[in-house]
UniProtKB/TrEMBL annotation:
InterPro entries: PCN (IPR044622), Quinoprotein_ADH-like_sf (IPR011047), WD40/YVTN_repeat-like_dom_sf (IPR015943). This is Cirhin. It comes from Ananas comosus var. bracteatus. GO terms for biological process: meristem growth; meristem maintenance. Coiled coil: none annotated.
Length: 212
């Protein structure tokens, strides 16, 4: 909901967009590629743009006023980089930076998050790392070693490495429950350690099987 539009999703994956000014149904969009909607939201930059993600890890940007896929989706939704098609886990949420000038969104699963900027080119995959991703919140010693190695590299190579690119993926060490923007340049990440998950399991049941 953004003040003018209210988007709702049925249990079948169909999208209903209501106009709050007229209090009427504005648009109905049936299920996309037989995949359920996992997250959605209106862009702060343009309230007519509805971004949704699906259980197939697809991203769509709809033009609500025109009742159709937006220009970005018509060009790119079916030709996303392979590193995103291999995104670890199922997308469970998304977050927009709280800025009227931002064109980006972060989508995330319990295992990773991905930076998507609708104003940037959809660049091709490279062969640097699987999924085009860098470890995120990994072992501190490993991070220090990696950084020390990078310091010995050519500064031009380092700047290329640190330049933000579209569909950058960062992996999480522990399962993540929520990711949300606190400001344009800061994120709140709520995670649950694997050890906490394991400790929540019931104790194993031992039963003697007679005759063995």
């Amino acid at each position: 909901m953004d003040g003018q539009w209210l988007a709702a999703v049925s249990c079948f994956g169909d999208i209903y967009v209501f106009n709050l000014e007229t209090q009427r149904l504005h648009w109905f969009q049936c299920k996309m590629n037989d995949a359920s909607v996992t997250a959605g939201g209106f862009s702060p930059r343009n309230s007519n743009v509805l971004v949704i993600t699906t259980s197939s890890n697809e991203v769509y940007a709809f033009d609500v006023e025109a009742k159709q896929l937006g220009e970005w989706s018509r060009r790119h939704s079916h030709h996303l980089p392979r590193r995103f098609q291999e995104f670890p886990g199922e997308v469970i949420g998304l977050s927009f930076p709280p800025s009227l000038y931002s064109t980006s969104v972060i989508v995330y699963s319990a295992r990773a998050m991905c930076f998507i900027d609708f104003g940037m080119p959809v660049d091709q995959d490279d062969n640097e790392l699987p999924n085009g991703s860098d470890p995120f919140l990994e072992n501190n010693d490993a991070i220090k070693i990696t950084r020390s190695k990078r310091k010995r590299k050519n500064p031009e190579e380092e700047s290329k490495r640190t330049t933000k690119r579209n569909f950058d993926i960062c992996s999480f060490r522990d399962p993540v429950l929520f990711v949300g923007h606190l400001s344009e340049n800061s994120l709140l990440i709520v995670e649950k350690r694997w050890m906490d998950v394991v400790q929540s399991f019931d104790a194993p049941v031992h039963r003697h099987i007679y005759g063995t």
